[in-house]
Write a structure and sequence with these properties.
Layout lengths: L1 E6 L2 E5 L2 H19 L3 H6 L10 H9 L7 H22 L1 H22 L9 H11 L11 H20 L6 H23 L1
């Protein structure tokens, strides 16, 4: 962890490298996409209905989380990631959080490819939902299910299921649900393992 010293008693700590990496790459990806009229975003940061033989299909299965439709979309997702990411990196490690991000990106991309092949997918919303559900396990004790987890699952995932069935918009409810399931599964397993 690097420290930048401003004064004797004031220092800025460069913590949470995975979190900061997601935010930095997402900012650059969104900026480049907007500067090129969406061309860079479509090429590198958005899943498409492309051949499995195309190497970019596999790259975009992971990089689609960095692309965002506009600044509002970016700021909404990055606010949650900056809020939850550092706490999760401190509790579970940067390596574990990077694995959660990679798994969430790939599984949401795979689900989209199978279930909604004609729909493009971009944004870190699935990762946000993984972080939200994962964070609800930070006070987990063996043999208990935190009430915060139950409430988060009801409010966040319940809303996504409801909207997925009743609302027609550009938000990938399936990606949110998959991210939430991954976050809760990883949170439960990591905390259970830590108690053994």
């Amino acid at each position: 962890m690097k420290k930048i010293h401003f004064k004797k008693d004031l220092k800025v700590t460069l913590n949470a490298p995975v979190t900061l990496g997601i935010v930095g790459i997402s900012f650059v990806a969104t900026l480049l996409s907007l500067m090129t009229g969406g061309l860079i975003g479509q090429m590198f940061f958005m899943t498409q209905n492309s051949s499995l033989l195309n190497p970019l299909t596999w790259i975009r299965a992971f990089t689609h989380i960095f692309g965002h439709a506009d600044w509002s979309h970016l700021v909404g997702n990055m606010s949650y990631i900056l809020l939850l990411g550092p706490m999760l990196e401190e509790k579970y490690s940067s390596k574990t959080l990077a694995q959660v991000v990679a798994i969430t990106a790939f599984v949401t991309s795979l689900a989209k490819f199978i279930l909604f092949p004609s729909v493009a997918l971009c944004g870190a919303s699935g990762v946000v939902f993984a972080f939200i559900l994962l964070s609800s396990f930070t006070s987990f004790k063996e043999g208990e299910i935190p009430i915060t987890f139950i409430l988060v699952a009801v409010f966040f995932l319940g809303q996504q299921v409801f909207e997925g069935l009743t609302v027609r918009d550009n938000i990938s409810n399936s990606g949110h649900i998959i991210g939430g399931v991954i976050g809760s599964t990883v949170g439960y397993r990591l905390n259970k393992k830590g108690k053994n």
